[in-house]
């Protein structure tokens, strides 16, 4: 965006509905801002007054507020004696969340309030359909609109055939072929994106090169792919919002090595929409599409209308998602049990301090 143009909150996605929702915070003397970069305990926030550094105090339980790049927040403005402080996080319209690599039951927020979730896949590497399906489930579940961008078309002799293969596993999703080297497809991407766009993909997929093409300048650092294993280095160390010249903002992310699923029931249904549609014609409403008689999904496989691989992938991701949900349920039960014990100890302490009179 030209330096002559003074950025406003509207350039970062602020709208009339946000303004109406913020009225109660404004009445308290707070100001709105969007988190363009989040760190532990601090963040960079763009406000009507410009970019400021703000602190993120612990919440009422003593834990750190879960703040994410893309969040809209209410801030106590800075004074001569103190820095700006985040006091509230506004409701998220969408959120990209994956399971943590550590396997804990709490998901990891990758981006908030995104309109387009762009899945970036390199055509210089063999296509991994299962990985694309994982990312699609995550994207659909976020509340944003998925978009698949195939990069490095100049390094693939059958790029458009590959695009057809990807389109077959991405029902309802636009699939674009691009090359940052030749410029192929970049205008198509510009036409397809709007609002806040997040780029997701593994290291070396070409996210930063694509981002620089969209930005019109080399604002995002680029590293070459290693010759030894074909993998890229983590070029982007932080999730950060950058304004786009034609309007909207871009959120580049570090490369995703792992794409664990976290509570993506609806996302799976949309990713495997053809299976979901077929399931409506199964004899049994609770058909698991395994060996049940009258299964429309299995019939479609027999007729050659549905690849077996597609159903196998659906079952595999369903099992993983169910396992993640079970971990979450176990954590909630443990927290409830711990709270009950703490209340019991509190009651005993009160009784000892204030014994009942006989």
UniProtKB/TrEMBL annotation:
Q: Where in the cell is it found?
A: Cytoplasm
Cofactor comment: Binds 1 zinc ion per subunit.
EC category: hydrolase
Xref: InterPro entries:
G_CP_dom (IPR030378), P-loop_NTPase (IPR027417), Ribosome_biogen_GTPase_RsgA (IPR004881), RsgA_GTPase_dom (IPR010914)
Location of the region described as Disordered in the Swiss-Prot/TrEMBL record: 319-358
Where, in this chain's numbering, is Zn(2+) bound?
A: 282, 287, 289, 295
State where composition is biased (Basic and acidic residues): 319-345
Q: Domain EngC GTPase, which positions?
A: 112-257
Binding-site residues for GTP, renumbered to this chain: 151-154, 201-209
Q: What is its EC number?
A: 3.6.1.-
- What does the similarity note say? Belongs to the TRAFAC class YlqF/YawG GTPase family. RsgA subfamily.
| HAMAP family referenced in this protein's UniProt entry, alphabetically | GTPase_RsgA (MF_01820)
Function as written in the Swiss-Prot or TrEMBL entry: One of several proteins that assist in the late maturation steps of the functional core of the 30S ribosomal subunit. Helps release RbfA from mature subunits. May play a role in the assembly of ribosomal proteins into the subunit. Circularly permuted GTPase that catalyzes slow GTP hydrolysis, GTPase activity is stimulated by the 30S ribosomal subunit.
Assembly: Monomer. Associates with 30S ribosomal subunit, binds 16S rRNA.
Q: What is this protein called?
A: Small ribosomal subunit biogenesis GTPase RsgA
From what organism does this protein derive?
Gordonia sesuvii
Which gene carries the instructions for this protein? rsgA
